[in-house]
UniProtKB/TrEMBL annotation:
Protein name according to UniProt: CCA tRNA nucleotidyltransferase
SMART domains: HDc (SM00471)
Domain HD/PDEase: 263-418
GO molecular function: CCA tRNA nucleotidyltransferase activity
């Protein structure tokens, strides 16, 4: 069912027209190629949704009735590069100029509840392809080259209401592919949309089905959720519906009281605040490693909780236990090795600063902190600063000041140590050879002269240093020829 373009508000018409104009060189050329070959083609899903939301992007998702082998024939000689890794799932990837293009054959995919692999069934109509998509806002298309707007499931009105709703019954949709439950939480975080109550209810009923989905697919949605603009919203859905218990069980387990008097936030709420405070310090875009570390930094607490006499609660070595648990969980989710080791290292180091007190660390302790953090030091700074969620403003300001002090000491020490590593451009043996002298105090004087020269002028090269040394020696009356 094609919606006449005048169902769009003028603002929406403008947004779609702008998208189509922006991608015209690529999209229209492709559209004509497919039309000439007797096939349909439409821009679909993410780029259409994002254009209407005015979120920029450079990925083009297209859908067609042509089968993958046919797609390959049609784009042959036109695309700059072609990828066929997704071909058994009906997807051909290609690059044209700056555009990353994915062309997927119409599908009516169904999922065998016992199998981990979606079984691909090709479809023959755009409508049926849109019907099997995850959410109505992702089931809008613009035909190419004609630009007819297609929205059979009310995606536009959902967009207006900021709502994620499955085109079909949520139970059926999530049975076909349980990953869609995670995608609901992911888009909730990325777009700030609410999930339709019927879909939330289905997520609650069907949460356990996520276990049939491969870890890699779950991981990718989790990463996108965490890197979205409202991860708290997405995580609350995962935890609230019980999905998290099946893919990140350490998270719901954080919902435990840390004192008998309920005076403190529970560890779960604390972790979400730490995540948000870490995000607030990011400098260039979402940092998955930092976000994972902030979310998971206290997952060792439930296992290490112990009640002391007098009602005090302790969590001895929770950072060590937590680092180990982080490693196990992220490995199970098939995160790459460097992400696993970076995140678990940050979890392990997140408490170290608390031994700093009011600045009692020796220089050697500061050096160890820097060395142990290595490349992770800037993130450790952010994580440690974020890990202060006290409501006591004075206490928070004190902690921030103490950390400022530590950062200043790190800067001072590293500047000093950079300088202390500086050597003259010629060593003792070279000095002796250049000046034709034997070991003795003169070599030391010459060395000192060259070190000052290096400190004054920076690196000038051996040749220039040799010339300067000879000039200096003449002035000192120790020239070879004299
Ligand atoms: P982004 O690329 O920004 O992550 P997107 O909406 O393009 O967002 P993709 O994962 O690239 O998301 O998927 C492209 C489109 O394919 C979606 O818009 C949706 O229409 C459809 N889709 C993807 N995965 C599924 C799924 N598991 N079930 C149903 N439809 C899906
Ligand atoms: Mg996409």
């Amino acid at each position: 069912m094609a919606v006449p373009n005048d169902d769009l508000t003028p603002e929406q018409q403008k947004a779609i027209a702008e998208l189509l104009r922006r991608v015209a060189p690529v999209a229209d050329e492709l559209g004509h190629r497919f039309a000439d070959a007797g096939h349909e083609l439409a821009l679909v899903g993410g780029p259409v949704r994002d254009a209407l939301l005015r979120r920029p992007g450079n990925d083009l998702d297209l859908t067609t009735d042509a089968r993958p082998e046919r797609i390959l024939e049609i784009v042959d000689g036109w695309a700059d590069a072609v990828w066929t890794i997704g071909i058994e799932f009906g997807t051909v990837g290609l690059r044209k100029g700056n555009y990353q293009v994915e062309i997927t054959t119409y599908r009516s995919e169904s999922y065998d509840p016992k199998s981990r692999k979606p079984e691909v069934l090709y479809g023959t109509s755009l409508h049926d392809d849109l019907a099997r998509r995850d959410f109505a806002v992702n089931a809008m298309a613009a035909r190419l080259p004609g630009h007819g707007f297609v929205d059979p499931f009310g995606g536009l009105s959902d967009l207006r209401r900021k709502l994620l709703r499955t085109p079909a019954r949520p139970q059926d949709s999530f049975t076909d592919d349980p990953l869609r439950m995670m995608r609901a939480a992911r888009f909730a975080s990325q777009l700030g949309f609410a999930v339709d109550p019927a879909a939330v209810a289905a997520m609650r009923d069907m949460a356990a089905r996520i276990e049939i989905v491969s870890a890699e697919r779950v991981r990718d949605e989790l990463s996108k959720l965490l890197c979205g603009s409202d991860p708290r919203h997405g995580l609350a859905l995962l935890v609230g519906t019980g999905l998290a218990a099946h893919m990140l069980p350490e998270l719901p387990k954080l919902r435990l009281e840390i004192d008998e008097h309920h005076r403190h936030k529970d560890v779960y709420e604390h972790s979400l605040i730490v995540l948000e405070q870490a995000i607030a310090q990011e400098e260039d875009g979402p940092d998955l490693v930092l976000r994972l570390a902030a979310l998971l930094h206290d997952i060792g607490k439930p296992k290490t909780r112990s009640f002391e006499d007098g009602g005090r609660v302790t969590f001895h070595h929770h950072e060590v236990v937590g680092a180990q648990m982080t490693k196990v969980r992220l490995t199970a989710l098939r995160y790459p090795k460097d992400i696993v080791s970076d995140v678990s290292r940050l979890v392990e180091l997140h408490l170290r600063f608390h031994g700093y007190g009011t600045g009692e660390w020796t220089d050697s302790a500061v050096r160890r902190y820097v060395r142990d953090a290595g490349d992770l030091l800037p993130r450790l700074h952010k994580l440690t600063r974020a890990d202060c969620t006290t409501r006591n403003k004075r206490k928070a300001a004190n902690l921030a000041r103490t950390y400022d002090d530590l950062e200043r000491r790190i800067a001072r020490l590293s500047a000093e140590e950079e300088l202390s590593k500086i050597r003259p451009e010629l060593d003792g043996n070279e000095i002796q050879a250049v000046l034709g002298i034997k070991p003795g105090p003169a070599v030391g004087k010459a060395y000192k002269f060259l070190l000052d020269l290096r400190l004054d002028q920076g690196p000038i090269g051996k040749e220039a240093a040799t010339a300067e040394l000879l000039r200096w020696a003449r002035e000192q009356g120790m020239d070879r020829s004299s």
